[in-house]
Every structure is written in structure tokens, then in C-alpha cells.
Amino acid sequence: MRREEIIERVKKAILAEFDVEEDVLRPEAKLFDDLGLDSLDGIDLVVAIEREFKESHVKVVEGAVRNLRTLNDIYDYVEVHVSKTP
Amino acid sequence: MLGIHSNPTMNKQIALITGASRGIGRAIAMALARRGLHVIINFLNRVDCAEETLKLVTEQGGTGELLLFDVADYLACENAVQQCMEAHGHIDVLVNNAGIRKDELLVWTAPDDWRAVIDTDLNSFYNVTRHVVKEMLLKRKGRIVSVSSTSGRTGLPGQVSYSAAKAGLIGATKALAKEVAKRHVTVNAVCPGFIDTDMIGNMDREAILQTIPLGRLGTADEVGETVAFLCGDAAAYITGAVIDINGGIYT
After folding, report:
1. Contacts of B30 (CB under 8 A, 6+ apart)
2. Residues spanned by the domain of A58
3. Residues B15 and B94: beta-carbon distance below 8 Å
4. pLDDT tens, A20-69?
5. Cβ-Cβ contacts under 8 Å, B138 against chain A
6. Is the pTM of this model over 0.90?
7. Residue of B nearest to A44 (CA)
8. CATH number listed for the domain at residues B14-243
């Protein structure tokens, strides 16, 4: 999957799930500080990402969650885990 | 003819009660069923008793089902919760009730017995709640009640393992209550004292009665009704609470 497609789909999932403006969604935007999410929102975020990339079997495992700090981290994570599955 | 008749559990709240084949767990299942919830009756060893619980539930007009799994087995719990979610799409109430006792002076407590009590009475909280609370958080509602014990409040000689596990449940309840309050999921515990169930077994009843201000054992129904109250809409503002049901034993 191309990175552009991943970025577009992650953004779409976030905009559908949370009350945030699209112009906040810069790659370096911090999930907590810039998007204003809290730790419980992180659960909704993970579920939304997993749902968006269901066909690619993207699963966000326990240890990975705390390393997802920015949108870029999410793009990287999805990119790696999408490409792992044929 | 499937599909013509509506699913009898549709529009019903779903409650999962661990260790509901006997005693307090059975009474909790019956109390929740009386309030119109569909009860999932977990059991491990006594299928005959679990079937009796289901029979009692249906006799009073309720609906329920049996679900065999070991609350001490993490993967079994994960699978069981997934099974409930696939069947019903939601779990509105979780009652962590399953528990065992292996009473012995600490000095004579074998490692396996210690671990068995902690696994079934305390680690079960993590094993089951972890998966259920995630679904509740996503749904923005839920009720979790854990059955602790007066033993976990006061400590009882000959029950160091049981007291440790039950006290652990209280800490877990208070912490999780704060963790998930924002999402309208409430988490509470009840601490039954001496309740007239199989668990009293061959304890010295006369000696026990001396310690209870109300002068009698409690009934499983009295615990069931308290738990059912905590699981209802009327208890929406109660969270992180630990409710003693013990006839006035000072804790």
C-alpha cells in the first residue's frame, strides 16, 4: 500500500472518530498535545485504525501503543504492518 | 424458520457472571435476570449446578445461557468474551464473582495452593475485565462489580491467600473506577461477610454467629440484590465504592 493512501485513510478514520479539524492533522502533530486526545481516546483511535485497515489485518499490539505519539508514528506503524501481510 | 422470530435477547442488556453455578453467583444471576437482563452463567466444574441456575432463571421468566471457561486461564477468558461479543454484540454488565478458598495457616500453604487462590480470585479480574472493559469503553457505558469479601477488608487468620486476593480486588476496583469513569463505566466491589452458602462448609457456625452484630448469616439473595442494584441505572453515580454486606461486622 502506498504511503499516501495510508495517510489519507488514517486521517479519514481520525476525522470520523474525533472532533478535530483537518488542518491539525500534520504529520508531526502530537496525538495528546495537538489533537487533544487523552489516554482513553487512544483505545478508540486504535480500534478505528484497526477497522480502517481490517482487510490488511493491521493489529496494534499492547507494547506498540505507547510508541505512537504522532501521526507520523501511526503512518509508520501501519506501513510496516500492512507490508508484512501479503 | 430462523429469522422470522426475533432473537429473545435482542434489546436486552447482557450480563456475564463468573462462577454463577452456585451460591452467591447463582443469586446474582437470578437477581439480574429478574431485572430483565440476559444472564451468561459462567461455570467451570459443576455443569449440573449451572444448569440448575439456568433453570431457576427461566422459571422466574428470565433468559440466560451457560458458558464454560476457567477464569484463571487468560486465553480462555479472552476467547469467552469474544464469543459473547460475537453472539450478542455487547456486554453491559460484568460480575467478577468466581472464587475459591484453600484455607490453611500460611506456614502450611503450598505454593500451588497460594497460586491457585490468587489465580482464580484475583488474576481472574484481569483475565476477564481487561477484555470486557474495552468493549464497555467503546460503548461509553458499562457496569463492573467484583465480589470481594470481608476477609479482604479485615484479614482473617487461616485465609492469608484468600484475604490477599480479595484485598487485591478492592485495590483493582478503586483504580479501574478512576481509569474509566470518563466513559461512564462504573466499577464497584461488594464485600460479603458470612453468607449461608456451600462456602461456609464445615466452619463453626456458632462461633461465627458470635461475631455478627445482626446475629445471623447473610443470604445469597441479599448479596444478589445489592449487586443488581449496583448494576442498574439508579447506581450511575456510585463508582469505586466498596459495599459491605456483612451484618454489621466492623471493618
Report:
1. B53, B56, B57, B60, B62, B221, B224
2. 3-84
3. yes
4. 999 999 999 999 999 999 999 999 999 999 999 999 999 998 889 889 99
5. 43-44, 47
6. yes
7. B138
8. 3.40.50.720
CATH number of the domain that residue A55 is part of = 1.10.1200.10
Give CA–CA dist B187/B1, Å, rounded.
41
Domain count, chain A: 1
Q: Is the pLDDT of residue B164 over 60?
A: yes
| CA dist B15 → A72, B86, B160, B198 (Å) | 40, 14, 31, 24
Position B5 confidence tier, pLDDT thresholds 50, 70, 90:
low
- Cell numbers standing for residue B78: 479472552
Q: Do A43 and B134 touch (CB under 8 A)?
A: yes
Name the B residues in 161-200 with CB < 8 Å from any A CB: 179-180, 182-183
For the stretch B20-30, what's the b/e string if a residue is b when 16 or more beta carbons lie within 10 angstroms of its beta carbon?
bbbbbbbbbbb
Q: Report which of residues B216 and B1 the model is more confident about.
A: B216
Predicted complex ipTM: 0.88
Task: Determine what percent of chain B is predicted with pLDDT higher than 70.
Answer: 97
Cα B205 from chain centre: 24
Q: Do A40 and B138 touch (CB under 8 A)?
A: no
